[in-house]
Amino acid sequence: MFLGIFVAAIYVGCTYLRQVPRWAVAMQRISGSFLLFRLLIEFSLSRQPFTFLFSAEIIIECLTVVSLLFVHRKLWLHFGFLQVLKVVTLWTRLDAGGKVLPKYSMLARFWVKLGIQVIGFVYIVTSGLQLFELIGDPTSAIEKSRFELNWINSLYFTVVTVTTVGFGDFVPVTFLGRLAIVFVIIFGVFLVSRGVTHAVDVTANLRSGTGSYTYK
Questions:
Q1: pTM
Q2: What's the confidence (pLDDT) of residue 51?
Q3: C-alpha span between 18 and 115 (Å, rounded)
Q4: Where residue 18 falls among pLDDT bands split at 50, 70, 90?
Q5: If 0-12 CB within 10 Å is exposed, 13-18 middle and 19+ buried, where does residue 112 land?
Q6: HSE, side-chain direction, 13 A CA sphere, residue 113
Q7: Which CATH number fits domain 101-216: 1.10.287.70, 3.80.10.10, 1.10.10.10, 3.30.1330.10?
Q8: Distance between CA atoms of residues 137 and 14, nearest Å
Q9: Which among 88, 63, 66 has a CA at the least distance from the CA of 1?
């Protein structure tokens, strides 16, 4: 979990600087080597190796490993941000087993879990949108759009979009960027509205003593 957070933090810094410092190259390659070693161990211990290889979680892990192992100073844009998805998944599993924050109330654990899921969702969408926009046509995006391709502006655009505010001051212009934002609008708005409704219901029920929260 901590390795995933570390990789995600370095990724944000490198995308904002648009370069990878030498120390960051070394740290990312070390992280990639560790992830590869762990992946090989999990594969060797798996009873169903083919099912293991083609699972969504392992595909994400492989993309991350390749990105980290082959990173260099000018290759600041890669799939390392997907490690956050694994962090969120791991926290959810630990939460389901009651292994995190056992001394806190049920309501507090629920809000912590929800906060981690929201932060993870926003981080992944922000990084993914920036990736797709740059892959789509970086020259066109830089010359023709007010959507300046840095992580902070992508974060701002993501929050404005999923909250349905829609100021319109930043817009993706490439095909891949627009395709990505279509899915963000469809699924992001639905997930945010569903999450808010669920949070209000759970909080009201727990405070009134008329319900309970089941870990999922």
A1: 0.78
A2: 74
A3: 29
A4: confident
A5: middle
A6: 29
A7: 1.10.287.70
A8: 20
A9: 88
**How far is 56 from 62, CA to CA, in rounded Å?**
10
- How far apart are alpha carbons 65 and 32 in whole angstroms? 5
Asked which of 95-104, 137-146, 173-182, 195-204 is least confident by mean pLDDT, the reply is: 137-146
Q: Helices in 46-145 by DSSP H: which ranges?
A: 49-53, 56-69, 83-96, 106-136, 138-144
Structure tokens at 21: 């410092």
In a 13 Å sphere around the CA of 123, the CA atoms on its Cβ side amount to 23
CB-based contacts of 158: which residues, under 8 Å, 6+ apart? 122, 125, 126, 129, 184, 188
Give the residue extent of every domain in the chain: 1-98, 101-216
The two three-digit tokens of residue 84, written as one number = 């956050």
**Contact by Cβ (8 Å): 170, 153:** yes
The crossing angle, in degrees rounded to 10, of helices 189-208 and 151-162 is 70
Any idea how long the chain is?
A: 216
Residue 200: both structure tokens together: 């209000």
